[in-house]
Write a structure and sequence with these properties.
Radius of gyration: 27 Å
Strand content: 15-25%
Helix content: 25-40%
Number of strands: 30
């Protein structure tokens, strides 16, 4: 009997070994077959955000405290947890841990808009390679970035995370970003797919967009990023798109993303819990984040009642297993928790300096670095390194403008500095910039304070130059406002007026630094001042980078990735944007049923393809600063433009020569005007760009740019096809969209078209 029992036990163990394979890269199908329905459903639902209970982090993401989420492990089959963390300007995790004397700070890199201002793909890859190293060494598998929605309107609260109003620039930047991160063997999650162009009621707003505008503007950047960098994951957005939640749209997640573009990774939801879990899974959303038990229950019930087939379930599980075997955690990487933060800070400073945009310079810059400086503006101390919410980074420090200017050799007006410091101390004491439970969303910035005109007059006599720092913060969960945000406040206008009057009367210059998270109005005041430097929100070392530009240590070479309008309402999208919406929904939350409200519950993109410069140039609308604009401390000449047709479009080349007295880099922007007739098209569209190396005075470089016939195409809704018309095109080489230096004709001899699926049609107008 004993012998029989031993034999049975051995057979049971052998059967168990066969029935319970351990996940490997080469046995995904075997593991899939071995999984129970419960296990499959579990793998498709995240493990929920970790919580702090009595000072101890609980939840699966306790693996990396402060990580946004994770996938669930299935130990029986050797399937490990994987960790997902924010965010676009650097890894976002908790910097300190209970009972642990070590710190886990991450580098605060420049925001997406500033990186895009570099127009330099190699620089972006350098930055994100360093960023990805922190992801790897802190034990995270996927960085939930980059954010890459189009700058449809200047007031979108998360524009600072995003790249551009132009889909080509946005897509190329995103692809470079992904390549840099993923070179470390960790993943990215490009987001928010798609049409998440406002934060107001972002969970429920229905973006109603024509198929042409959707394909040409709001999906084109994602298409470029997917095809050129193959991100590990894509994050579906909260909002609806033409009637369906994006996370439940098979046309968006499967037909377009996978069937047309060839995406091979996983799709995850943005962080929520919508009731349509089964519809999401069926549509091609592989992972529900942050994850809740009721979502597992819904998937199981959906399989049992036939709402989702076993084949569809297995497809998603297979995608998840394919993702998991790529991760550092699956491969057993021994992360150090000690990335080289000092070296990465230098990368952040370099990137910020090379991306800063010089908007105005009437003989004011560069400074010598030895001047006595009156540093105005509360933002000189309360410097904005990045945005709030998931786009923020828990960094060890932020250099402010006072520190940077002092370190650069300037002597600052002590009385003025003490005045601002006293206000900061008073504000902290009275209002307590404390970390409340909602500070993640509602972090605020200090308001500007008045300086008496007679004090400014006295300071103008005691100092050599005035530097005014104007600041704006922005962040997740709320859109910006037109009044006192896009437009200057009364206090800021008074400050600029009084400083400019006093210093100009004394024969001295006034420089403005725009430390902003998004576009602001500049037309009404820019001619009052002598120079305007735009560093956006440039990361923890950004103020040092500003000082580098002010002194000429760095010659600015950034150019605008969006248009600065004269007036807010000049943007056609402003007619359909909740620019002064004040109710609770502006924070992204829903508080119960109410009558659907235009631009809150639904937003009609009535402007179609006329976004940014496509509108301003075609309609000949005056702007304050055009798309692609940026000054340098030197000058450049363009010569020898050549455009040669090839079997797949054309190849263009241009020679750029530094004709000034100092070294510098130049961005060349290539715009194309299509033949007349057929579809109405913009006057010109960006089709390629390149940036020179640092050219010494008199030095030249020839840039070569390739444009395919497909990239020339527009979307014909009637035919559900991309079409490149035959005929004569004009190829423009520009320093900005408004500064075209050379134009060469190009003839496409034969019309070409690329049919696609007829999906994502808008619902009837509301």
């Amino acid at each position: 009997m004993k012998k029989i029992l031993l034999t049975l036990a051995a057979l049971t163990m052998a059967f168990a070994a066969v029935a319970q394979p351990q996940l490997r890269e080469d046995n995904i199908e075997e593991v899939l077959k071995a999984m129970t329905l419960q296990e499959k459903a579990t793998l498709l639902v995240g493990g929920a955000r970790a919580a702090m209970v009595n000072g101890v982090t609980s939840g699966v993401s306790a693996n990396v405290p402060g990580a946004a989420g994770n996938t669930r492990p299935i130990e029986r089959l050797g399937i490990p947890v994987t960790v997902l963390a924010d965010g676009p300007a650097g890894l976002r995790i908790q910097p300190t841990r209970p009972g642990d004397a070590n710190t886990y700070y991450c580098t605060g890199f420049p925001v997406g808009t500033l990186l895009a201002s570099s127009w330099d793909l190699s620089l972006v890859e350098e930055v994100t390679k360093a960023m990805g190293n922190e992801v790897l060494e802190y034990g995270v598998d996927v960085l939930l970035a980059p954010g890459m929605n189009i700058h449809r309107n200047p007031l979108c609260g998360r524009n600072f995370e995003y790249f551009s109003e132009d889909p080509l620039l946005s897509g190329k930047m995103a692809a470079a970003y992904v390549r840099g991160i993923q070179s470390n063997g960790v993943g990215t999650s490009i987001k928010h797919y798609a049409a998440n162009n406002q934060e107001t009621n972002r969970n429920e707003d229905d973006a109603i967009i024509s198929q042409r505008a959707l394909r040409e503007i709001y999906l084109k950047n994602f298409e470029i990023a997917v095809k050129e960098s193959q991100p590990w994951t894509v994050m579906s957005s909260y909002n609806k798109l033409n009637g369906d939640y994006t996370q439940q749209s098979e046309g968006l997640l499967t037909t377009v993303l996978r069937d047309e573009w060839g995406f091979k990774g996983i799709v995850m939801t943005d962080w929520g819990n919508k009731a349509g879990t089964v519809k999401s899974a069926k549509a091609g959303n592989d992972l529900m984040e942050p994850g809740n038990q009721n979502e597992i229950d819904r998937i199981i019930a959906g399989v049992q009642d036939g709402t989702i087939s076993q084949e569809e379930l297995d497809r998603n599980v297979r995608n998840m297993l394919t993702y998991i075997v790529r991760t550092p955690r699956f491969k057993g990487y021994k992360f150090s928790n000690k990335p080289d933060l000092k070296a990465h800070a230098e990368v952040a400073r370099k990137a910020a300096g090379e991306s800063i945009v010089l908007l105005r310079n009437e003989g004011a810059l560069p400074l010598k670095g030895t001047e006595k400086v009156a540093l105005y503006g509360i933002s000189a101390l309360d410097f904005v390194a990045g945005g709030t919410g998931s786009g923020d980074v828990n960094k060890a420090y932020v250099v402010n403008m006072e520190e940077a200017m002092t370190k650069a050799g300037f002597t600052l007006d002590k009385g003025l500095s003490d005045y601002y410091k006293a206000y900061v101390a008073y504000d902290k004491a009275q209002k307590g910039l404390t970390n409340t439970g909602f500070s993640w969303f509602f972090s605020r910035k200090l308001s500007e304070i008045s300086i008496p005109a007679d004090a400014i007059s006295a300071e103008s006599k005691a100092n050599d130059v005035a530097v005014v720092v104007l600041g704006r913060n922005a962040g997740e969960g709320a859109d910006r406002k037109q009044i006192d945000d896009f437009e200057l406040t009364a206090v800021e206008r008074e400050l600029l007026r009084d400083v400019s009057t006093a210093y100009h009367a004394a024969g001295k210059k006034v420089i403005v630094v725009l430390n902003v998270g998004g576009v602001i109005e500049t037309t009404s005041w820019k001619n009052m001042v002598d120079a305007i430097v735009l560093p956006w929100s440039p990361g923890q070392e950004g103020a040092n980078a500003v000082a580098d530009v002010l002194t000429g240590k760095v010659n600015p070479s950034g150019k605008l990735p969006m248009t600065f309008p004269v007036n807010f309402m000049d943007h056609p999208s402003s007619a359909n944007f909740p620019y002064n919406y004040q109710q609770s929904a502006s924070r992204g939350f829903s508080w119960g049923p109410r009558q659907p409200q235009k631009n809150v519950d639904y937003t009609q993109y009535e402007e179609g393809i006329w976004v940014g410069y496509r509108h301003f140039v075609t309609r000949d609308v005056e702007v304050s600063y055009p798309f692609g604009y940026g000054l340098s401390y030197t000058t450049f000449a363009y010569s020898k433009p050549v455009v040669k047709a090839d079997k797949d479009g054309f190849t263009a080349s241009i020679t750029v020569t530094n004709t000034g007295k100092v070294a510098g880099k130049e961005v060349v922007e290539l715009y194309v005007s299509a033949p007349e007739g057929g579809l109405e098209k913009p006057a010109c569209e960006l089709k390629a760009f390149g940036k020179t190396k640092e050219l010494q005075p008199g030095e030249s470089q020839t840039l070569t740019l390739k444009v395919s016939a497909y990239e020339l195409a527009s979307f014909n809704e009637a035919a559900s096809a991309w079409e490149a018309a035959a005929g004569k095109y004009s190829v423009h080489f520009g320093a900005s969209v408004a500064d075209i230096r050379c134009t060469v004709p190009f003839t496409l001899k034969k019309a070409q078209n690329w049919p696609v699926h007829n999906v994502l049609a808008p619902v009837a107008a509301k």
